[in-house]
Amino acid sequence: MNASAPVVFIVDDDEHVRTALARLIRSAGHRVETFASAEAFIEDADLEASPACLLLDLQLPDLSGLALQRRLHECVPVIVISGHGDLDSAIDAMKAGAADFLPKPVHDAVLLDVLERALERARRIFAARAELADIHSRLNQLTPREREVMMLVVEGYLNKQVASELGAAEKTIKIHRARVMEKMKAGSLAELVRLAEKARLAQSADPGR
């Protein structure tokens, strides 16, 4: 199976449950990786290589499922399952950003339906993350002066105003601006503004950056 295909991570300390869930999900054509604890998942799961979602049991022997979910900061869609499916647990899981909450035992058809929706969301998250990485790669090609020019241009400054702000000749600013457009692969000012806004949103939305 393609290593970049979406993957379903299963974290459950019950070996029989892990095996049964993995068998069902593989039968639907999905790639599966299983873990017996939150710590094992944190240590070994690769959340960057492909679109992914997490099927997570709340009752785990080390770090709780809810604590793990909060730690992920919604970087992957989480479907919470639990044999202790009380209302309070469901509310806590949904408040923490769970895509869904399913009490055990889970009906196969219900699980697969919820899983398909989670994987679709995972694909969107993965595509957005890849786009942001590409934008930052383009930004890293800019010289410090080109970055200054870009930021003023996207703020609406005209070439003459940029030149005055930076103490440079307008002809020089035009050259810098052309290089910015080329390196950022922007076909228009509107596209350049969109790229700059996405980069800013990525930095403000992720407190770990």
TrEMBL record:
Keyword match Acyltransferase: no
Pfam families linked: GerE, Response_reg
Modified residue annotations for 4-aspartylphosphate: D57
Domain HTH luxR-type intervals: 135-200
Transcription recorded as keyword: yes
Domain Response regulatory: 7-119
InterPro entries: CheY-like_superfamily (IPR011006), Sig_transdc_resp-reg_C-effctor (IPR016032), Sig_transdc_resp-reg_receiver (IPR001789), Tscrpt_reg_LuxR_C (IPR000792), WH-like_DNA-bd_sf (IPR036388)
UniProt-recorded Gene Ontology molecular function terms: DNA binding
GO biological process terms held by the UniProt record: phosphorelay signal transduction system; regulation of DNA-templated transcription
Keywords assigned by UniProt, alphabetized: DNA-binding, Phosphoprotein, Transcription, Transcription regulation
PANTHER family: DNA-BINDING TRANSCRIPTIONAL ACTIVATOR DEVR_DOSR
Entry protein name: Two component transcriptional regulator, LuxR family
Organism: Paraburkholderia graminis (strain ATCC 700544 / DSM 17151 / LMG 18924 / NCIMB 13744 / C4D1M)
